[in-house]
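From the shared-data thread, chain only:
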Amino acid sequence: MADFLFTQDVNPEIIKSKRVAIIGYGSQGHAHALNLRDSGVDVIVGLHETSQSIAKAQEQGFTVLTTCQAVREADVIMMCTPDVPMARIYAADVAPYLREGQALLFAHGFNIRYKTISPPDFIDVAMVSPKGPGPGLRAEYLAGRGLPALFAVHQDATGNAQQIALSYAWGIGSARAGLLKTTFKEETETDLFGEQAVLCGGIPALIAAGAQTLIDAGYTPEVAYFECLHETRLIVDLLYRGGLTHMNRMISETAEWGGYLAGQRLVTDETRTEMKKILSEIQSGEFAREWIAENESGQKRMAEFRAATPELPVEKTGRELRRVIPVIDEAE
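Structure, as tokens:
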């Protein structure tokens, strides 16, 4: 069993003695900034002067500076911008203003792993990666809990890089839940694989295909939605609380037995072969190169995918159902 670190293993005074610049104020950035501030840390936000997030950060009480100004004023810089634009932002507005003794942190290892960012050797470079999206990080903090986080050190110029990372993890609330040491390589490759093969690729594709199968067979679209999408939350909650074994104890024996049989038919040797290919593409950098190229070409294929998803039958049905079911608040 891997060794986890918790609040008692961390020195909070390290991060409380430093000024932290959060670069970016999106899903991750806003949660990091708010949690750190509530933990007593001096936080500023660095954004491009045309950023649409400036007003939101200011409304929430933060001093907002241009990215280069924030870097100059900070002791610790956390990069919370999207992966691909981050390399350009770093080159233009971060790298020229770094000074000896600063710590450069990342919430995800993508740019270090694929060498689109190469920090100078006179700064600490580390990672604190909460295991969940920003809204979840904030919600868990406010509930007095936290999201577990991975941490890693890529470069230890001061001899204190790990302690700074751990103290930062305390500041965002993750030390409450547990901190696990990893590497930039391991975090990046496993994170991308989990997203693609299971969480954001496998599960949605399975939901859409399952609902479509029922609809094509003549079943009511609303019933197909309930059976293939709506109940997913209930199952995921069971998995989250106790894993596969707990889920199987909580569902009916009919569902358990059918799940064993059907699962083996759906996840076949062919499926596992494709999973290995997906992992290989991540490890080789092929996926990263494709994603960077997609961004450089204006995200044309991404736009096509985004336009197609709302037109899926399960999506159209879901939008109508959520309007009439009072217990569900439609997401913005």
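The CA atoms of residues 30 and 154 lie 24 Å apart.
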